[in-house]
Design a protein that fits this description.
CruF-like; Putative membrane protein; membrane; 8 helices; transmembrane; transmembrane helix
Length: 245
């Protein structure tokens, strides 16, 4: 069972490598497959390393909470701004593709575990994990908007070089990420484990591959720069900690 997360991580990496080499509907399919493998990876690791309590906490906060905040966002424009999802990402409920809350669940887990490894302060862990998760969206949103998977009705003011996405989106991500990490800090044991290595690898791979893909394959140099610097600030302390071991 301990090898399962590594196997799933390998499958995830393979699918993500294929993504920039494809086009149109194939990319949409690979996007969905990536999220499905990713959420299976995170949930499986949570179960193996910390038990059913961790799975319930993760799915309840990032999954159910992610769906609710997205549904509110689509209906009201709060907290991300006024936006709409296309039909490219599969079935929707209340205007939200069901794959979206799974994406929150997938990446919230490695963000939290990386923060556990970086600092022993609960407050700092919440800040580091939330900041890292929100900065991942500096890669995600520009890529998905470029593919036409969702659009904003009022995309200004935007970050320089990232048109079509209002700053409110990133602030909304940060606010909800703080809520996720606060709940996880209350529900889960606050200690890193040796079994967390696959999630560290996922976190580092997500960062490095995103910088590479946006720079070389997807023609999104601005998101490569923004994400490279800001998410890099969340990933670098983990690399330093792991190097010292």
């Amino acid at each position: 069972m301990r090898k399962v997360p590594w196997v799933l991580l390998g499958a995830l990496i393979l699918v993500q490598i294929c993504y920039p080499l494809t086009e149109d509907k194939t990319r949409a399919v690979l996007t969905v497959v990536t999220v499905l493998i990713g959420v299976l990876l995170s949930v499986t690791h949570a179960l193996i390393s910390r038990g059913a309590r961790a799975v319930v906490a993760l799915i309840g906060t990032a999954g159910v909470g992610g769906f609710l905040v997205e549904a509110v966002g689509v209906a009201t424009g709060f907290p991300f701004g006024t936006y709409d999802y296309s039909g490219e990402l599969g079935p929707k409920l209340l205007g939200v593709p069901l794959i979206i809350p799974l994406a929150w669940t997938w990446m919230a887990w490695p963000a939290w575990l990386a923060a556990l490894r970086i600092t022993t302060s609960t407050t700092k862990r919440i800040v580091v994990a939330a900041f890292g998760l929100a900065c991942w969206d500096l890669f995600l949103d520009p890529q998905m908007v470029a593919e036409g998977y969702w659009t904003w009705q009022a995309p200004t003011p935007a970050l320089p070089g990232l048109p079509g996405i209002p700053i409110s989106n990133y602030l909304g991500w940060l606010g909800f990420a703080v809520l996720i990490m606060t709940v996880l800090s209350l529900k889960l044991q606050q200690k890193p484990k040796t079994d967390d290595a696959p999630m560290y690898a996922l976190w580092i791979w997500t960062y490095a591959s995103s910088v590479l893909a946006h720079t070389v394959f997807l023609d999104l140099p601005a998101s490569a720069a923004w994400g490279g610097v800001l998410m890099g600030a969340a990933v670098a302390p983990l690399l330093i900690k792991l190097r010292k071991c």
